Amino acid sequence: MPLIRKRRSQADPSPSPPPTRRRSSPPASDVSSEDEAYDGGAAAEGSTQMAGSSHEQMVKKLVRLALASEYSRQPIRRTDITAKVLAPNTGRQFKTVFEQANHQLRSTFGCQMTELPQKEKITVTQKR
Known about the structure:
The protein is mainly alpha-helical. It has 5 helices and no strands.
């Protein structure tokens, strides 16, 4: 029985691209005080933009929560909204976030969130 030898695979004529690397951002401790002093006006403007964008993020989160809860036919509790949507140190933004999310739901999806009446707490003596 003759011995069969396998041929070595021929190298591709086209070279393969080099592996890509992610850029690493410098640590926060490398920022000098001169840079902070130079960007003082821009930093104040950026903080207001960040506040606006975080507010819009909360509105988007509430819209997504409302759509997901509507799909599963579950009521949304105020405690769920504060825990899942609102940032921990935002203060009293519930009303504005709720109104804007309701506006987006109405304009985009044609539905709205309404507050359900609270259950009446009736004691046994009041039932008699």
